[in-house]
Design brief:
single chain; 98 residues
Length: 98
């Protein structure tokens, strides 16, 4: 049995609030987002990536996971296992970030 469409007649459609404003720190009472800095409006262009699958020994994989968690706490941001592996490969291969 199919459900009926929801009744939207009671919603206030005069409000022009963007649902994403809440995620950006808008005041829910006023519906206004804080002014954004110019630098945060320009999105960084992602670099193309490819997927590589590796099998690691349990102790190595566990050490990688632990290091990612420890680094995340120390740096106050999420540090992924991929970031750590990429950093190690760049160091070993002598690659320098541009």
């Amino acid at each position: 049995m199919m459900k009926a469409k929801p009744d939207l007649r009671g919603l206030d459609r005069t409000s022009r609030r963007d649902p994403n404003d809440f995620l950006n720190g808008a005041d829910p009472e006023r519906g206004q987002a804080p002014p954004m800095e110019r630098s945060s409006q320009v999105a960084a262009k992602p670099e193309p990536t490819i997927q590589k699958l590796f099998r690691l020994r349990w102790d190595v994989a566990n050490a990688l996971k632990t290091e990612a968690a420890k680094s995340s706490v120390e740096q106050g941001r999420r540090v992924t296992e991929t970031e750590i592996v990429e950093e190690l490969i760049r160091t070993r291969c002598g690659m320098i970030d541009s």
